[in-house]
Design goal:
225 residues, alpha+beta, globular, binds zinc ion, 38% helix, single chain
């Protein structure tokens, strides 16, 4: 794959827009969440810590290298910077990473339950299963390391007892996976726990949906059980 990166200005513009979307959709509260764009083989722009993702400007970001060293910017980079770096280091095709505390996805993460249902077509197309990690303390090396096994074969992950993480070939794709994850989680919540009834796909239908999803370019963390 040809390595093509956004310029610094382009990356910052997209980060501001994506942060606004996350905020407006209620995927982050207070200063929650963080997002980044890779702009070189070993450099990224990431949100600084302690700011609302709905009210960012060009000074809300820090440029760091893959060791976490600050190269440019006024503030301190997000406490989850190493988690973002691990996404980029593990999969060379990743250009954008989004971390949020979207309510439904986070509820499943706090229950320790992967998103695993065979009753909604879109969830299977987009993800198959969204895995859930064991809890790791936010802002630590443990959290950054815990996600590595999932990066190459997925585009989304529930961070146990914490929140959600998505990544993709650009920041828009990473953000769209966040929206799709939240839809999937909300749908499972409503059918399984509010209505209390699920009409399940047959094995054959699940296989067909998984196949269509793969053709659409979805990575799938497993076959819904
Ligand atoms: Zn978080």
């Amino acid at each position: 794959m040809e390595k093509k990166y956004l310029t610094d200005d382009e990356a910052i513009e997209k980060l501001i827009l994506t942060g606004q979307r996350m905020y407006e959709r209620g995927f982050v509260a207070g200063s929650d969440g963080n997002l980044s764009i890779r702009v070189d083989d070993d450099k990224l722009w990431i949100t600084m810590s302690g700011i609302s993702k709905g009210h960012m400007d060009k000074d809300s970001f820090v440029k760091v290298d893959f060791k976490g060293n600050k190269l440019f910017g006024k503030g301190k980079s997000s406490s989850e910077t190493m988690m973002h770096i691990k996404c980029y280091e593990t999969d060379d095709t990743v250009r954008g990473v989004v971390h949020a505390h979207s309510p439904y996805g986070t509820a499943f993460a706090c229950a320790g339950l992967p998103l695993d249902a065979r009753n909604v077509a879109e969830g299977i197309l987009q993800f198959g299963i969204v895995p859930c990690t064991e809890f790791a303390m936010p802002g630590t090396e443990d959290l950054a390391m815990s996600i590595i096994p999932y990066i190459k074969d997925n585009n989304a992950l529930l961070l146990g007892n914490h929140g959600v993480l998505t990544w993709g070939e650009d920041i828009l794709k990473a953000y769209m996976k966040l929206e799709a994850l939240e839809f999937y989680a909300r749908e499972i919540m409503l059918t399984r726990y509010v209505i209390g009834k699920e009409r399940l796909f047959s094995d054959e239908d699940v296989d067909t949906l998984m196949e269509i999803g793969r053709k659409m370019g979805s990575k799938q963390g497993g076959r819904p059980s």
